[in-house]
Design goal:
Blueprint: H1 21-28, H2 44-51, H3 71-74, H4 77-92, E1 101-105, E2 113-114, H5 119-122, E3 139-140, E4 147-154, H6 158-161, H7 166-194, E5 203-206, H8 215-224, E6 232-235, H9 237-244, H10 252-261, E7 271-274, E8 282-286, E9 292-302, H11 304-308, E10 315-325, E11 331-335
């Protein structure tokens, strides 16, 4: 059993391929060894914070300079930054509601698999005894998935932030994470609407009226996505207002739920998500279980050495990711 207060922390723990700093700590100091103790519920990184008495949140949070009292505690600082940025990404992230799968790769080159079933392949007809079963063809995509690097530059000297409380500094880092998440969402929606190097743009359904959305339009969107399930609708604020203003959406009991909890009434049972980045008069309907794959190269990237050495100025925080369609017909665009 490795005790958390005897582990030597160093820069090299951040340069171990796909394994994160916390995963390496967990190998050295497994959390299962702390069952039925006062430290149960803490992961290996949180135990290191306790070891050096570093409080990252709350009214009694420490200053940034507390990380740099020793060389060992300084090695904890990049992971603190990474966790704060990741928290910001998760709070602002609706990608889990629109992607069917997330693939983590170690590198920058990735080919997905594609399967574009025709009408015959979508219907499983009876097969006579001894006859061959119909085939579903799955193959590698012709082109690599296009990955985008999204991030922010942290511009601050150590002297400017050393006396800053960590809970306030965390708010700033979370906001960086929120920026990254919003941009990733725009990348995802762009692939859904316009396609990528391996798949075409989404099919369109035109509204019967000018600049308005009718309940019939939503029904047409629902029917055109068949045989997939319309379980998610993406729309900018203007489209959401038009949808919620429909007479069919003004159910009194549903309205009470909206006023009391903020949960919007959903058309045809689909989850209605606000996506400001959608331009023009359009909304997107999709089957989140089939439409999109997210590809991410590693985790949150940053200059670990610079952070440990207190060289915060011009330190980049970024994430490399891309998106590709799995079944192109699992998403449609309603234009109005």
């Amino acid at each position: 059993m490795a005790f958390f207060d005897n582990i030597k922390l160093e820069k090299g723990m951040y340069a171990n391929g796909n394994r994160s700093f916390t995963e390496i700590l967990e190998e050295l100091d497994p959390s299962e060894n702390y069952r039925n103790t006062q430290l149960e519920g803490l992961d290996a990184y949180q135990r290191q914070l306790k070891r050096f008495d570093i409080k990252v949140g709350g009214n009694n949070s420490d200053c940034v300079g507390k990380f740099f009292q020793t060389s060992d505690s300084a090695a904890l600082f990049p992971e603190y930054v990474s966790r704060a940025v990741r928290q910001g990404m998760e709070r602002a992230d609706i990608l889990p509601d629109i992607i069917a799968a997330k693939t983590i790769i170690d590198g920058l080159d990735y080919r997905s698999v594609v399967s574009v079933p025709g009408a015959e392949e979508k219907s499983l007809k009876p097969v006579n005894e001894g006859a061959y079963l119909p085939q579903t063809n799955i193959k590698s995509s012709e082109n690599l998935v296009k990955l985008q690097k999204r991030g922010r530059m942290l511009v601050a000297s150590y002297e400017a932030v050393k006396f800053q409380k960590l809970d306030i500094f965390t708010v700033t880092l979370r906001q960086i994470g929120a920026y990254i998440a919003r941009q990733q969402l725009e990348d995802a929606v762009n692939v859904i609407i316009n396609g990528d190097d391996n798949s075409p743009a989404a099919g369109t359904v035109s509204s019967a009226s000018n600049s308005e959305i009718t309940y019939q339009d939503l029904l047409n969107l629902w029917s055109n996505i068949d045989p997939y399930e319309l379980n998610t609708i993406l729309s900018p604020a203007g489209g959401i207002i038009k949808i919620l203003s429909l007479n069919e959406m003004k159910d009194s009991r549903a309205g009470l739920n909206f006023h009391g909890s903020g949960k919007m009434v959903t058309p045809l049972g689909a989850k209605l998500l606000h996506v400001p980045g959608i331009s023009g008069n359009k909304i997107v309907g999709l089957d989140k279980n089939c439409a999109l794959e997210m590809v991410q190269s590693g985790g949150i990237l940053m200059d670990h050495d610079r952070l440990i050495d207190r060289q915060l100025e011009r330190t980049s925080i970024s994430c490399i990711s891309g998106f590709t369609k799995i079944f192109p017909d699992a998403s449609k665009v309603l234009t109005y």
